[in-house]
Predict the structure.
Amino acid sequence: MLREGTTMKGGWCCKKSRPPEIERNIKANNQEYNAQFEYANNYICTSKYSIITFLPKNLFEQLQRIANAYFLGLLILQLIPQISSLPFYTTVVPLGFVLAVTGIKDAVDDFRRHRSDDQVNNRKTLLLRDGKLVEEQWQKVVVGDIIKMENNQFVAADLFLLSTSEPNSLCYIETAELDGETNLKVRQAIPETAEMSDDNEKLHQFDAEIVCEAPNNRLPKFEGKMTWCGESHSLDNDKILLRGCVLRNTQWCYGLVIFSGHETKLMMNCGKSVFKRTNIDRLMNTLIIGIFMYLLSMCLICTVASGIFESAINHNFQDYLPWESFVPGTSQGTKEGSVEEGATVISLLVFFSYIIILNTVVPISLYVSVEIIRMGNSLLINWDGKMYYAPKDDPAKARSTALNEELGQIEYVFSDKTGTLTQNIMEFKKASINGKAFGDYLDKEGNPMDITDATPTVDLSWNPIAEENFEFYDERVVQEIRGGNKHMHEFFKLLSLCHTVMPDNTDGKLSRTSNSITIEVQGTEETYDLLAILDFDNVRKRMSVIVRREGKVKLWCKGADSVIYERLDPACHNLQELTTHHLNEFATVGLRTLCLAVKDIPDSEYAAWSKKYKEASLAMENRDDKVDAVYEEIEQNMRLLGATAIEDKLQDGVPEAIANLANAGIKIWVLTGDKQETAINIGYSCHLLTDEMEEVFIIDEDDFDKVRDQIDKAISDINGYKSGKRGNDQVDQVTFENGLTPSGAQYMKSDESTSVVGESEFALVISGHSLAHCLKPELEMGLLELGCLCKAVICCRVTPLQKALVVDLVKRNKQSITLAIGDGANDVSMIKTAHIGVGISGQEGMQAVLSSDFSFSQFRYLERLLLVHGRWSYLRMCKFLKYFFYKNFAFTLCHFWYAFFCGFSAQTLFDPYFISFYNVMYTSFPVLIMGIFDQDVDDYYSTKYPKLYYPGLVNSLFNKKVFALSVTEGVVTSIVLFFIPYGAFYESIGPSGVDNADIQFFGVVVASILVVAVNLRCALDTCYWTGFSHFFIWGSIVYYFCFIMAFYASVFNYSYQGAAFAVFSSGKFWLTLILTNVILLVPVVAYRFYVTNINASLSDRVRMKQRLTKSKARTKDLHVRRTSTFRRSARSFRSGYAFAHQHGFAELITSGLNMRDRVASTLRLNSPVTLTNVRKRIDSSSANVDKKSTNGATVHVKPQHPNSVDNVESGEKFVYSERL
């Protein structure tokens, strides 16, 4: 089924204008009463157009885009004969193509919406009318009706559940249409209405009055109360069935319609989503404005020159070229005036004429081409088999097609931990019970031992309902339980009672109803009256249940240690210290912990509290705050029982992915709800934190001033490290000017060669309490500065709101692209805040996926998404834009140069049809293929050398400077294209004595050379050749020549008839074509040869290595040899001698130089590394080596060739470099 309303835009077809609701009043089975409020009916209309309104409304929407409106204005100018030298179809063809493609897409989308609306509105449901069930269409349902639904039926409207077929008035619903989750959720009717069961007569007489909240889009919240038979009952979300849900495993149920039609929560959530724009989009908008100003400047030059030419020269030749009759001073005598006045009028008309002629510098096809390329790259992501997760049959999905190239520019990644870095599959491992730790495997003497695959687990065969796959190693737990230990029994009773699990069968001994829970304790059933559930949320960070058994009322509570400790009885102080010690031990091995507490409640205290709780739950204003205050009142002075420790294992490939992303220069911030020690341990496990880091700063104070002092001190320490105040290394900084890039280094933009400056790495860990202070305006910039100085940041105990605020802080204040990745509903705000949101389809449903721009099943796929698809998309888009602007300027400026030879009369050089087809047929497909398929290196090398990602971080492949160079190249190309053929055919005469210098002949010559030149230029830009590349590049050239020969043939009787044959039969044309292309392309080839061989980038070197590897593979020699700086002996391969036959490293070892960090950092590179001791002293007079003092020393190493490795020994200083 198509999801309802997911494409809703604009107004609703059935919505009436009425005052906004504050609260809703409903009487069951009373349509007359409910009709006075004019509530919306159940008819929905999500479509935008009808047959009559489609054309005008769609055109109006499309013309709101600046580019389309601009070309419409040009079309209007072309319809004015006095200023147009081009026929109108030169603009109609490209504009019509763009509008038609977009219009067809919109029409198809809207047709689907119409079909979906009809399907939904005409569904059948059973309505209770006059005591009888009547089948009606959904669109005829109104507020106040009672509906009967059967198993597997969709819920027609938002309903208040009255009764069900299941015991305890339960029903099960699937909410995939709302939140993407396929797991069933439980709803329960209140006992008072459940008694009506399926008695239609009782249901018909049901006359309760409902007062509830006004329509809103809050899916997990509902506040209301029902008054019936003089009593009031609280209504919340657990008693509501929302439109879009499906009834499952329930034979039937009855519900009262609360919200219908467009006022249901589902439809209220179908508003227009926020459109995200990429950096390149914003840059293009700026560049288009600049291009337009450039266009105006060219038109002004032609205008001034035309005025001068007309007044000085052309007015004397009116016998041959008379001015128009409306021009002052015309020789026709129709209008009097001076020559200057006439020249002024003509020049003003010429201004608009040249706007029409030169309009192609503002390319209308640019936006359409960009969308096609983005769609193609999105499909490549969707079809990537290496991002397909077979166990869940879940491929990667690009849910947004507008952000692909921004994946190649990500500098900050904000990640959730649970379910994103970990599997979100919890296993009970350890526990602290009454101050005693359990969970380790102990020997006979009671000493803990390491757990291996051979370690025996606890024998639970005596328990018939024990889980078979449960692994636990501490026998003492079983002994204490079977021995009747009171504290042990209380501990596990809390775990059995304090939850919201609803068993779907009674095979086990755990069962529950709406007001009771039954458990089995060592063969004996115990039933507890369930008095209240104090539910968990991200602010409370705890949940409690209040139960009664044998007349005793108890509160059982579990939650985070920080909130439980605040609510303990002072008598638990000693036990709290022991438990805290155990919690820290559990956290250091990466286990997640919860604290457990209990409280005995006197009957009188509970009775008073229960009254307050009922009043708060019936409140229609600030219900949540009032209920939380009542919860807080009862959850005090609790007795600590202990703590649980569960394991949530890392997903496969997470450490490697994080390490590779970090090597690419991407900074990773982990935002987790775990406690600090657990987060730090997981940080080390996933290589977010490493032993090579200079220091890990911890911000954990609760006081505002102390937090500020910690931040200031950390910033000062980092600056001290970087300035060398605390460094002990004698060589502080090494700069490689050949572009070699050791791991753990920072790129510096100096000149065209990329330098690398080694630096110390830092990390930051910040607690939830401290983060709350840091996000205040006074400290947020300090937090940002400190976080940006660190390679990794971990925020602990954060709420969903704090996650979004941290992302927003970086997004607002840094000129960097951010990405947020998560798997649960608590990550949605963070995902929506970041530039790009990625959803993990894990164990917590699909809400994160539905809010994301990209989705997949495993965190490790993020590495491939960014380093492969993101980098490729950015590279392709940058190449496309550079080439697109180049070819358009090369094409358009030929008209500008021709203006100097036609008296600035706004005459065109090219055939009008050529002008229309140039960007549509002759040059569009090759650049589209390049923008979809091109790649500098393959996916293997893209991940093996993560430093290839760096150009995207600094936006070096397409910016204003690159744009200016592309425009300059286009201008130079236009000069060559125009003047070389002009010189070649100046006063030229063909073999038959016919003059070859007419405008049509010359225009075809320049156009033909232009098509060949720009397509060959595209071929030079193409790094990855596919069958499509060959077909469209060479095919575009062949197609042009074939089409022009056919179109200019006599059969069409076109004005250019015979021009193509005359040109192509001239040997001078072919010589000119070759000469012009050689002049245009040889400098490009020479420059690239120089760059590749003399000043090669990392991409060039990796590409060369890739080619060599493939070449060796084709010759059956899979071993790629490289020059080695080790001198190996020519000894026999049979020798068993274990030592290398060369000079050793004793001098290095005894020198005292600490090489650990550098060696460790180089080992993180996947490329081979050579360490060589070269016997060469550094001489201050050497031309190739610069030397400074040892305090903050900087040694510049200039290898003789970019692919060579020079190593220098100076006293006790050694410099080692890396190479591919």
